[in-house]
Amino acid sequence: MKKDIHPNYVECQVTCACGNHFTTRATVPEIKVGVCSACHPFFTGKKSRVVSEAGRLEKFNRKYAGMNYGQREESSD
Question: Where Zn(2+) is bound, by residue (predicted)?
């Protein structure tokens, strides 16, 4: 390996949003993550978080339901 071109490989403190933290090694001293093995549903076997986000189109349609967007109203003759 060439000298003086590789980053420093140091101990790293990983902190999860659930409060869990552990030490590993990386090129940065601190990493913050949103999900770890202590709170991820795959590892815990529970559905701790309900992830129900509607698609972008459904969200748009709900937001603007009933608007005519400048179109002429159809008359029933």
Answer: 16, 18, 36, 39
Does residue 28 register a pLDDT over 80?
yes
Residue partners of 54: CB distance under 8 A and separation at least 6: 62
The pLDDT tens digits for 11-25 are 999 999 888 999 999
φ, ψ (nearest 5 deg) of residue 68:
-100, 0
| Binding positions for Zn(2+) | 16, 18, 36, 39
- Which amino acid is present at 1? M
In this structure, what token pair is assigned to residue 13? 């403190």
**Bind-site residues:** 16, 18, 36, 39
